[in-house]
Write a structure and sequence with these properties.
heterodimer, A: 112 residues, mainly beta, 5-stranded antiparallel beta sheet, B: 114 residues, 4-stranded antiparallel beta sheet
């Protein structure tokens, strides 16, 4: 059974710092991995999607990497801003058209 | 393109009452999902439809939850009767049938059962 773990559960960093969020999964035979952002009381916004054949994806200040063999992904946020404060969720999909299995998320707070 | 629409956005009911949520997926998306997200947890899949057929409902508490997707477009999720532990955000997502498979989420419905 696939399990997704995110560490740390919560993180506070001063504005301007670079930071890394971690995600690990137990079954490496994934189809893809997504990073989502969730603001309080809101739905999920997809940030980056990495196919199983890819090693990383970049969008603006965000970079997500995938190491299938070790069952790990990282989300790197450069030059953090207060607007980056949110919960970041990692999710894996085992097969095309299959459900997504989520981690519990990392609550990020950027200190002005 | 318009996003996934959900209503209502908020609902407060007493235990043992019934409630229904509505979802309108992105036009043309064949697959529709309902997730339950309890505070502090990641979303958990309740049911997955492909067109109007059920693909996975293994985690749907069928004694009290039901869902339908008539005509393969809109979907409703119903809880009857509600329990305190059903308090959560109910998220609807949809996805197209194409190679780069990505799910798009609606804003969710926050349910409070008192």
């Amino acid at each position: 059974k696939q399990e997704v773990t995110q560490i740390p559960a919560a993180l506070s960093v001063p504005e301007g710092e670079n930071l890394v969020l971690n995600c690990s999964f137990t079954d490496s035979a994934i189809y893809n991995l997504q990073w989502f952002r969730q603001d309080p009381g809101k739905g999920l916004t997809s940030l980056l999607l990495i196919q199983s054949s890819q090693r990383e994806q970049t969008s603006g200040r965000l970079n997500a990497s995938l190491d299938k063999s070790s069952g790990r992904s990282t989300l790197y946020i450069a030059a953090s801003q207060p607007g980056d404060s949110a919960t970041y969720l990692c999710a894996v999909c085992m097969n095309r058209d299959d459900k997504i299995i989520f981690g519990k998320g990392t609550r990020l707070h950027i200190l002005p | 393109e318009a996003g996934v629409a959900q209503s209502p956005r908020y609902k407060i009911i007493e235990k043992r009452q019934s409630v229904a949520f509505w979802c309108n997926p992105i036009s043309g998306h064949a697959t529709l999902y309902w997730y339950q997200q309890i505070l502090g947890q990641g979303p958990k899949l309740l049911i997955q439809f492909q067109n109007n057929g059920v693909v996975d409902d293994s985690q749907l508490p069928k004694d009290r939850f039901s869902a339908e997707r008539l005509k393969g477009v809109d979907s409703t999720l119903k809880i009857q009767p509600a329990k305190l532990e059903d308090s959560a955000v109910y998220l609807c997502a949809s996805s197209p049938l194409r190679e780069v498979y990505e799910q798009y989420f609606g804003p969710g419905t926050r349910l409070t059962v008192t």
